[in-house]
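From the pipeline queue, job 12 of 40. The input is one protein chain; the requested action is below.

Action: predict structure.
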Amino acid sequence: MIKLSELRRRALAFFIRRRRVRITEGDSLPRKLPLFDLVLAREDDEDWCVGFRCPCGCNERVELLLIKEAKPRWDIAVTRDMRPTLIPSVWLNKGCRSHFYVRDGRIVWCR
């Protein structure tokens, strides 16, 4: 049985436009993140981290490390039209406890 809050999140994700990547120069993210898009911190062609607001609507700041030395770490693939895919999934263990994938700019919720 699907909870009402999960139905609301899925409906919201369906109607929200696909997310894009905005690249910022440097090894850290800006203090203020955009409402929907992801921000990729890149310095000298090396990706450091990606940040975005939680897609469930709680506005929690999500920061994921991309550097090889980090644990845990994520990989990001960006299409020509700046649509991101993150690997592996994102599972927040504080606050809203959302669990989702970012695939081709869309949020895919885990059960």
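Job complete. The longest strand covers residues 46-53.
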